[in-house]
């Protein structure tokens, strides 16, 4: 007999020890494959027998409150575990395949915070991020592909504001990735009718100084975010785009007027994650002593005048790209990467 609970916890402990961000349980024809995502790359962890894989899947579905009998439709839910006295929030989602279900688990450690000064690889980026946290009003957009560290930057900015001033901060997130003291954090819930735009409307009635929107996904949220910025609030938000110009275009595509974008958008940032030159080798037998890199962020910034040139004339600064930032970091010996990968 398999001790499914013990095997599941051992999997989570291993994932936490190597700083994995995601775990994937993939059904194959004769076995299940467990994979860890580390440093943005998916690695095979181990294979387990078919019966054990089914039991692990059922065990996790039961403990996070999913319907264990439902295999035809995707499901998602959350649960919390404790690994070596560290609280880890898990976001689980199933996806039906031809004959079985696949499971993806996002790991969200609650105590691992990164201060703003420790995020960028280039010191010049630190000053620019700190400047943004001193703004009194306006919209600050952070863009980049999935897994580029946007949420980490958002949390670091909010904690910098909490540390340096006394302001009321409200966040609207999907999901709340890390619980922060002294913040009001709203988690969207489509079933309950709490969407980003509904949550933002409610937040504006709650007398906030600073608002954080996990992601601008639609026209209503985009227009409300700009309206909040124009009425005296400092608003942080993310948007999926590959560079600053594309982020500005996204706001225009959402129906925000050029005038409102020029007046409300105070800063637009694009970022990616790269490996720092120094690395720490984790003694993990199952990964053949694979080096686990300390990762850092590269950023590009555009502010008022540059944003107006983008909106009105379509002009961008040719040198202001993540590729140029990466080449600079590589030349200075801060990273061992000289070309940017798919997701940075």
From TrEMBL:
Belongs to the GSP E family. It comes from Alkalihalophilus pseudofirmus (strain ATCC BAA-2126 / JCM 17055 / OF4) (Bacillus pseudofirmus). It comes from the Bacteria. Residues 204-218 form the Bacterial type II secretion system protein E domain. This is ComG operon protein 1. One of its GO terms (cellular component) is plasma membrane. Keywords: ATP-binding, Nucleotide-binding. Gene3D superfamilies: 3.30.450.90, P-loop containing nucleotide triphosphate hydrolases. GO terms for molecular function: ATP binding; ATP hydrolysis activity.
């Amino acid at each position: 007999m398999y001790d499914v609970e013990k095997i599941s916890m051992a999997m989570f402990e291993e994932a936490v020890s190597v700083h994995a961000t995601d775990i994937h349980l993939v059904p194959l024809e004769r076995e299940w494959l467990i994979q860890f995502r580390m440093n943005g790359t998916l690695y095979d962890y181990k294979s387990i027998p078919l019966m054990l894989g089914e039991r692990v899947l059922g065990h996790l579905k039961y403990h996070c409150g999913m319907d264990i009998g439902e295999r035809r439709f995707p499901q998602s839910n959350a649960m919390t575990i404790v690994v070596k006295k560290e609280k880890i929030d898990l976001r689980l989602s199933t996806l039906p395949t031809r004959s079985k279900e696949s499971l993806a688990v996002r790991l969200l450690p609650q105590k691992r915070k990164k201060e703003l000064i420790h995020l960028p690889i280039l010191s010049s980026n630190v000053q620019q991020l700190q400047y943004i946290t001193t703004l009194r009003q306006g919209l600050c957009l952070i863009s980049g592909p999935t897994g580029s560290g946007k949420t980490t930057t958002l949390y670091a900015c909010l904690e910098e504001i909490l540390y340096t001033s006394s302001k009321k901060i409200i966040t609207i997130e999907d999901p709340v990735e890390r619980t922060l003291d002294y913040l009001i954090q709203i988690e969207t819930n489509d079933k309950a009718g709490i969407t980003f735009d509904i949550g933002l409307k409610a937040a504006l009635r709650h007398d906030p100084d600073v608002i954080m929107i996990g992601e601008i996904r639609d026209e209503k949220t985009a227009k409300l975010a700009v309206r909040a910025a124009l009425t005296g609030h400092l608003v942080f938000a993310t948007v999926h785009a590959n560079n600053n110009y594309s982020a500005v275009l996204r706001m225009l595509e959402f129906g925000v007027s050029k005038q409102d974008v020029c007046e409300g958008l105070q800063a637009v940032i694009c970022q990616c994650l790269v490996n720092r030159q120094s690395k720490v080798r984790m003694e993990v037998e199952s990964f053949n002593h694979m080096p686990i890199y300390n990762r850092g962020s590269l950023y590009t910034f555009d502010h008022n005048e540059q944003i107006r040139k983008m909106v009105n004339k379509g002009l961008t600064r040719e040198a202001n790209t993540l590729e140029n930032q990466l080449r600079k970091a590589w030349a200075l010996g801060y990273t061992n990467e000289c070309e940017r990968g798919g997701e940075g």
